[in-house]
Amino acid sequence: MVIKPHDLLRIRNTTELKICPAVPYWVTKSLKSIPFVVVRRAPIIEGKIPIGVRGKQRNQRFGAYIAQEDVIEHISPNQIVFKRKWMRKVRNDPMPALQALDRVNGILKSFKLLWGPTGSVGFEIASDSNIVTKSSDLDIIVYSEDVLPIEKAKNLMFKLSQLSVVVDVQIETPNGAISLMEYARNEFPILLRTKEGPKLVNDPSLL
């Protein structure tokens, strides 16, 4: 199984969380209700996958590890886009972050970039739960083997800024992730998020 940060995993009800402190009650309750976790940007330890559990509150985030055999389903952010999974999502109240997905998809296609929704939007679509609110930002990840030219990054930022919802973009490179907003400023060094922790770099393509 090839996993990447931000991938979503549906897990068994009997999954034991490993290499973590005492498990809070809200974690057990959350996983019983929605048995989905998010892959964290951290090293795999003894074959175990680093995951994060989401709670109902923004401050409810819990890091742990799980065994690969506890994974029932593996959904990458890009699979959500490829299958346009948000088209099957029905909610009584329209949510701006969900409604913006078609337009974002059009913009990213015009730039010929591979992408996917992360954060609350990606989690809601993958798990078929209702966690996105009217004030939710749209977090997305753009996959890029090569660092984008600065002018292309600036143009992408401009296009996305015209939308009615805040779109927070991370660019996933082979060495880690950078913020599109920070990169488009063309002021270095910038923060590169790696499995070993954050690093300040002048060139995200080099470590």
Task: Describe what this molecule looks like in 3D.
With 207 residues, this protein is an alpha+beta fold. It has helices at 25-33, 77-82, 96-99, 101-110, 119-127, 150-161, 180-184; strands spanning 8-11, 36-39, 49-54, 61-66, 71-75, 114-117, 138-143, 167-173, 176-179, 190-194, 197-201. The strands form three sheets. It has a five-stranded antiparallel beta sheet, with helices on both faces. Strands 6-7-8-9 form a four-stranded mixed beta sheet. A two-stranded antiparallel ribbon has the order 10-11. The two termini are 26 Å apart.
Characteristics:
single chain, 207 residues, alpha+beta, 5-stranded antiparallel sheet, 4-stranded mixed sheet, 7 helices, globular
Regions with little confidence, pLDDT below 50 for 5+ residues: none
Taking the sheet with the most strands, its summary is:
5 strands, antiparallel
Which percent range describes the beta-strand content? 25-35%
Shape: globular
- Give the SSE string: EHEEEEHHHEHEHEEHEE
Fraction in helix: 25-40%
Number of strands: 11
Oligomer: single chain
Strand order of the largest sheet: 4-3-2-1-5
Average pLDDT across residues? 95
Radius of gyration in whole Å, from Cα? 17 Å
Class inferred from helices and paired strands: alpha+beta
Number of helices: 7
What's the N-to-C terminus distance?
Answer: 26 Å
